[in-house]
Amino acid sequence: MATEAATTASKFPESDLRPIPQPPDFHPAIVVPAQNNGLRFWQLMVAGSIAGSVEHMAMFPVDTVKTHMQALRSCPIKPVGIREAFRSIIKTDGPSALYRGIWAMGLGAGPAHAVYFSFYEVSKKYLSGGNRNNSAAHAVSGVFATVSSDAVFTPMDMVKQRLQIGNGTYKGVWDCIKRVTREEGFGAFYASYRTTVLMNAPFTAVHFATYEAVKRGLREISPEHVGREEEEEGWLIYATAGAAAGGLAAAVTTPLDVVKTQLQCQGVCGCDRFKSGSISDVFRTIVKKDGYRGLARGWLPRMLFHAPAAAICWSTYETVKSFFQDLNGDSNAA
């Protein structure tokens, strides 16, 4: 045994056994997992669908207040601030009015977010080239995701907003769909699609780039997360990064959200009806009636909606993804 040890030592001198020097910025403890972590496309869609539904349902009352603030009309209310809008809704229609249109949201949010997150993950995989620090790829992937998901979500979003401010104009989701189709035509469901895409393209670009950057930064500065796989980061990092991304993206895109609300609610309960779907026409009308401050209507409830909503959405999405990863791991082991 001693002879074998001596022979091994002679073959590998002590100088050859020293650790290989690494560059100063090398961090061996930070592990970057493979893109998508082996999840199937349908699993990404299910995770996105659950996350989107939970997010929008949980924050729906805040969205209702925002919609009332953004709709220019003479009846029944013309709120100025969050408190005034909330009190007016409760006084006029009661607490249940805060949830009017929630079924339309439920019907649209699930499928739309299934498309949203699955398209994002697939686009990110191919555009980033394996580089998780590629913010440009994250932003472009977000734009691809929103163009696709908005085509699914816009019709139900229009129904949702009309029910939110309708004050009894429609009996429910199906009544709204039938009446809009009969009275205004199918195109009315997509009257705001162009504005929605123009709003959500920068929104998602900022949102996804910020989310990935904040998540990466939190992972690197948190001692308890150094060396852990991404799926083990925990809901706190997902929620914090999501809240930062949602709040920032919401703030910078509020003017286009006001235009979108005007287009979707035109002709309902005193709201203006526009001769064309021109964004510039709506802009001019808002500025003429309410000044430039009208373009910022609802910015605070919009931020109050998107910050916690994104926190809920991302933590739910990543948690469901982790569940599928564990499930796939158990299946492979079996």
Describe this structure in words.
The two termini are 41 Å apart. This protein has one domain (41-222, 229-316): Mitochondrial carrier fold. α3 (60-70) packs antiparallel against α12, α6 crosses α8 (193-221) and α8 (193-221) runs antiparallel to α9. The chain has 334 residues and is mainly α. It has helices at 2-11, 41-58, 60-70, 82-93, 102-128, 135-165, 173-184, 193-221, 235-252, 254-264, 279-290, 299-333. The protein is globular, with a radius of gyration of 25 Å.
What oligomeric arrangement do these chains adopt? single chain
- Proportion of residues in extended strands: under 5%
The number of E-state strands comes to 0
Number of helices, counting only DSSP H or I runs of 4 residues or more: 12
Question: What class would the helix/strand composition place it in?
Answer: mainly alpha
The helix/strand series, from N terminus to C terminus, equals: HHHHHHHHHHHH
Low-confidence stretches: 24-35
User: How many domains make up the coordinates?
Assistant: 1
Q: Termini, distance in Å?
A: 41 Å
Radius of gyration: 25 Å
